[in-house]
Amino acid sequence: MLVGGAAAVLLVVGVLLSAGVGQLPIPASEVVGSVLRSIGIANPWTPGDPLVEQTLWQIRFPRVVMSLLVGALLAVAGAVMQSIFGNPLAEPGVVGVSSGAAVGAAASITLGLAAFGGWTTAVFAFLGGLAATGIVYATARAQGRTESVTLILTGIAVNAFAGAALAVFMFVGDTASREQIVFWQLGSMNGSRWDEVGVVAVVGVLSAAGALALARRYDLLALGERTAAHLGVRVERLRIVSIVLVASMTGVAVAFVGIIAFVGLVVPHLARMLLGPANRPLLVASLLGGAVLLVYADLLARTLVPAADLPIGILTSLIGGPFFYWLIRRSRRRGGGWA
Amino acid sequence: MSAAAIRLDAIGLRLGGADILRDISLDIGFGRVVALVGPNGAGKSSLMGIMAGDVRPASGDVLLDGRPIGTLRPSELARMRSVLLQENRVAFAFTAHEVVVMGRAPWQGAGDGRDDVAIVEAMAAADVAHLAERTYASLSGGEKARVSLARVLAQETPVVLLDEPTAALDLRHQEDVLRIARGLAAGGRAVVVVLHDLSLAAAYADEVAMVAAGTLAAFGAPADVITAERVESVYATPVRILSDPDTGRPIVLPRRSA
């Protein structure tokens, strides 16, 4: 409860800050005023300057909402992966799901595919992510558990292959698609549009609701899959559904903002430390925490270097990399090995 | 009392081209404790996997309370039989109490209000109430085994399958587990327990099923199954059978040179 309240406060402050800070500074009161007016509540804080309104609604808000959604999705995707792999080191970026999705997205751009209209890139990112998750899952698991070493090695292989595939698409693609691909590898919220936000929101709400509905079953999966089955879980079906959920959450995030690593690792881990391992509170906390983390990360990315938009993926990796290292050290010390 | 709790009819199992089990038939009644014994690799765990519905036999029929096990949905099965595996690991830092609560999952939505009572009773019976708030991973091997047993007890199923529940336990807790099994049987449940200690099996089981090289070497009352000739031929080691002065049950003593 306390944690939830703190997260909510952080979230609101982050949104106000992120919407207000930038080349054109906008006071928090005007941000609130503009939002209130948009939902039909007349108020004294409404900004008078049409430029402020335009900046808020065409540039800042879509970007802020995109950060919230992508952060929430990646964190939930990470928590779900950790449950089905039975390993706290599983994460879409680490094991190559994100790169798989980026390859799918790159393929659709370079080859000029448009089979699904505005959803095309997202659909291909989903398919790429699905293939990567499937490969990692099939390779890295034995008897319902995943040894860290196997998981990480599989991730290295998938990431290496995906990196090469991306390079091929860059090589054969034109300048515009090359720029797109570089953008994915770094990850950025820059230039988020409402129609993109819409796609992420639809997929995100459905997938997150799906993951939450499965929370109790994920708890049982911690007992090992045979025991989970003895308690009535259809393990095979749960796995398949979960892989699809992870691929769609990661795919839709990657399709529009690129690879943002470690969110799915850091957020569920902190949530577990604060709330314990039970999946229902864990998933809710991950959703909130991921949103909070990326709103602040994006704010930093926009403001850290004056007059430059630092790719947010660089920032999360700068923080997430050392965190990951610490996690590995800790799990080694605890487990006395690579269990 | 109509149907047997578990009926195996001419069970055969092949894995990787090898016969693991051949032509095993036996009935296990409600209210009985049946010990499954036999040398390493004889097929005890495979047989238990078949009774649990994890493994589908290549031939033969398995009936659980009169119903073919293959026709039961996972959720129905979870309300009929509980299983304690040899090895129990728990990913993430769940507490002992949380693990036992998971045993109630099959009854979610049953609305019988049994959950709290079942959990408290199970933890008391397995002597783990004092471990409730410890994380499972921090427990000793024997404590883990007892917490897992409490999880199985909390599931409150008419059929209880225990695969080597005593392996990690000290003398007192070994006896406790078998007494719990007797208690379950007294309440009308069927308990199947895989044991290595033949004397322990003889002391607590109503029937002993001895598995040897994938076949059922003998099935019946402990004194009929656990004879020196049979144990020597199945285990290929000389033994002497004594009689417990208190209970008259057989005690198996390997013959050792002085």
Side by side, the strands of the main sheet of chain B go: 6-7-8-3-9-10
Work out the radius of gyration of chain A: 20 Å
Element order of chain B: H for helix, E for strand? EEEHEEHEHHHEHEHEEHHEE
- How many helical elements of chain B? 9
Largest interface: A-B, 24 and 28 residues
Distance between the first and last residues' Cα of chain B: 52 Å
Structural class call of chain A reads: mainly alpha
| Mean pLDDT figure of chain B | 94
Span between N and C termini of chain A? Answer: 33 Å
Question: Which stretches of chain A of 5+ consecutive residues score pLDDT under 50?
Answer: 335-339
Task: Order the strands across the largest sheet of chain A as they lie in space.
Answer: 1-2
Low-confidence blocks of residues of chain B: none
Quick check: average pLDDT of chain A? 87
Regarding quaternary structure, what we see is heterodimer
Strand content of chain B: 25-35%
Number of strands of chain A: 2
Q: In angstroms, what is the radius of gyration of chain B? A: 18 Å
Q: Structural class of the helices, strands and pairings of chain B?
A: alpha/beta
Structure in words:
The complex is a heterodimer of chains A (339) and B (258). Chain A is mainly α and 339 residues long. Helix content of chain A is 76%, strand content 1%. Chain B is an alpha/beta fold. Chain B is built from 9 helices and 12 strands. Chain B has helices at 44-52, 74-80, 96-102, 115-125, 141-154, 171-186, 198-204, 222-225, 228-235; strands at 6-15, 18-28, 33-37, 59-64, 67-68, 81-84, 159-163, 190-194, 207-212, 215-220, 239-243, 250-254. In chain B, α3 runs parallel beside α5 (141-154) and α4 (115-125) runs antiparallel to α5 (141-154). The mean pLDDT of chain B is 94. At the A-B interface, α9 and α10 of A face α2, β6 and α3 of B.
